[in-house]
Write a structure and sequence with these properties.
The protein has 108 residues and is an all-alpha fold. It has helices spanning 9-22, 27-36, 45-58, 64-70, 79-92, 97-106.
Amino acid sequence: MTQARRLTVEDDMKPVVEYLRGIDIEDEQIIKMISEMPYLLGYSPEKRIRPVLEYLASVGVKSPAMIIANRPSLLGLDVDQNLKKIVGYLQANDYETDKIVEWLETSI
């Protein structure tokens, strides 16, 4: 049986909030993100958040920080296990980059 790890403010939550502030996400939006997806506070900025932002930028998203601010659920997708497969499928089926970016911004 897997047990949940106890989170601490200093070691877990504070680095996430500081990272989000550092990519110009406003406090009000951070609060909204956490309200929609509380387990965001358990993500590693370097191991989870940054890779998602970098991948979104690599596929043509102009403002990855704003997309995750509006759609924090994207952070729940692992880059290698989920995002690359979804985007790869769409690319393999000849969907245009603009359409893929639109879907990332609105529905994936």
